[in-house]
From TrEMBL:
Name of the protein in question: Protein N-acetyltransferase, RimJ/RimL family
Keyword Transferase: yes
Domain of life per record: Bacteria
Organism: Lentzea jiangxiensis
Domain N-acetyltransferase: 3-156
Keyword Coiled coil: no
GO molecular function, one term: protein-N-terminal-alanine acetyltransferase activity
CDD domains per record: NAT_SF
Keywords: Transferase
GO annotation, cellular component aspect: cytoplasm
Taxonomic path: Bacteria, Bacillati, Actinomycetota, Actinomycetes, Pseudonocardiales
SUPFAM superfamilies (alphabetical): Acyl-CoA N-acyltransferases (Nat)
């Protein structure tokens, strides 16, 4: 795709496993990634979802090494929408990589997939994620009260969206 993003490969399983082991990162995965086979399964699922036109996950590269993930999922062809998500390994945070990756992913979604609207949300107590969204051209649309439940605690989320015609 470009020097910043590429599809995940089976060789990336150790990176995925290491990322899943970082604090609070388990919430970024749809199932526990606690072993190399689980990391390989996560990558295989990403590849299968791409083949089914359901989701497109990319490794975010820094100096050629995967340090994060950016994805457009819930690809909906009737309304031409998708859901954006991202995570970065601890050592890669604060370098602008997530913002650049979200911009690149948005261009891919608009030009290659033909989507019109991309959405994302972050916990309101996560200002770093908000900076990524705003920096990537996603406008604030509102707060969803009590949207997420982690460890018995409810969290509000802020929803953002970017349209194909928006400046990014």
């Amino acid at each position: 795709m470009n020097s910043l993003l590429r599809p995940w490969t089976p060789d990336d399983a150790p990176v995925v496993l290491a990322a899943a082991g970082e604090p609070l990162m388990d919430r970024q995965f749809t199932f526990p990634v606690d072993s190399l086979p689980a990391a390989q399964e996560w990558i295989a699922l990403a590849q299968a979802r791409r083949n089914e036109d359901m989701a497109y996950s990319f490794a975010v590269l820094h100096e050629g090494v995967p340090v994060g993930n950016v994805a457009v999922s819930s690809v909906e062809r009737r309304h031409l929408t998708g859901w954006v998500s991202y995570w970065m390994r601890e050592e890669a945070r604060g370098k602008g990589l997530a913002t650049a990756a979200c911009r690149a992913l948005s261009e891919f979604a608009f030009t290659e997939l033909g989507l019109f609207r991309l959405e994302l949300a972050h916990r309101v107590d996560n200002p770093a994620s908000c900076r990524v969204a705003l920096g990537a051209g996603f406008l604030v649309e509102g707060v969803e009260r009590g949207r997420l439940l982690y460890d018995g605690v409810r969290y509000d989320t802020e929803t953002h969206a970017r349209l194909a015609g928006d400046r990014g």
